Amino acid sequence: MGILNINHDSFSGDGRVDQDWAVQKARELVRLGADIIDVGGESARTNREAISPEEELERIAPFIKDFREVSRDMAPRDEEQVFPPLLSLNTWRPEVAGPALELGGDILNDMSGLPDERNAALCARSGAALLIMHTMGEPKVSHKHIQYRDVIVEMGEFFEDRIERALQAGVSRAAIILDPGIDFAKQVQDNLRVYREAASLERFGRPVLLPVSRKSVIGKVLGITNPPDRDAGTAACIVAGMRRGAGLFRVHNVDMAYRVITTVHQICEGAA
Fold first, then answer.
1. Which residues form the Pterin-binding domain (predicted)?
2. What are the backbone dihedrals phi and psi of residue 48, each rounded to the nearest 5 degrees, phi first?
3. Contact yes or no for 182/217 (Cβ under 8 A)
4. N or C: which end of the chain has fewer CB atoms below 10 A?
């Protein structure tokens, strides 16, 4: 999953509010091997003011309309690439998700943790898949003070509840993806344990997306403050995640991720 930030304040510093740039950036991500483009109009950073739903939709709507042109006249990087690529809409507001899904979208990436049934109902109506992220509290608010009795146990309880909520809203179980929410409402040791025990989510029988790209926890471990310099740590998290059952990785550096995943597959196939 390649990240496309149509905003000015992404933590990784790679976003722009420019439609022509967004289309070209998406084409580059697809050329490098992205199966999914995850487009967002608002930074998730808690130290940035929230924008209005109207502004968020205004930023992403032109790109959604043009998305099917992104892969025109292109060929997949290899036979394993999902092609044409899928479009993921990264928003937590139902008032943005509804119109955005009407314009087109294969996945709704809900970073709010599905606090109610509204986003699930929108997915059920549109036929889009629903990506549920583990978090606590409201988006755009820091929750690093939260203490878990056991982060893995509580995350499991969270997903049991949210999956049932999605099913009740009409979402097919086959259309649900789980995201353990690295760096969201978690301290460093919580994040490391989630990486370490990501295989615990296999019991739900749904794909797991592991957020690995340039995360703050990587910066803490390596002592690196500049997010683009954390790609080596990102690569390590991809390898660890693959060994623990994760099948999707949300990344800024798609080329690096492609090379890491391809190499690991070749090694594992050879070992088999």
1. 1-262
2. -125, 140
3. yes
4. C
Question: Which three-class secondary structure state does DSSP give residue 178?
Answer: strand
Write the pLDDT tens digit of every residue in 196-252.
999 999 999 999 999 999 999 999 999 999 999 999 999 999 999 999 999 999 999
Give me the number of domains the chain comprises. 1
CA distances from 223 to 14, 22, 226 (A): 21, 31, 9
Residue with tokens 């709704």, as numbered in its chain: 108
35 closest CA partner among 89, 72, 76: 76
Identity of the residue numbered 165: R
Give the domain CATH number at 223. Answer: 3.20.20.20
* Residues recognised as catalytic: 215, 250
∠ CA 15-18-19, rounded to 5°:
120
Beta partners for residue 38, in sequence order: 3, 88
β-sheet bridge partners, residue 250: 211
Domain that holds residue 137: 2-270
Of the candidates 161, 154, 228, the one whose C-alpha atom is nearest the C-alpha of residue 186 is: 154
Interstrand relation of 36-40 and 107-110 (parallel, antiparallel or unpaired)? unpaired
Q: 63-117, pLDDT tens digit by residue?
A: 999 998 999 899 999 999 999 999 999 999 999 999 999 999 999 999 999 999 9
CB atoms within 10 A of CB 55: 14
Task: Compute the C-alpha angle 24/29/34, nearest 5°.
Answer: 145
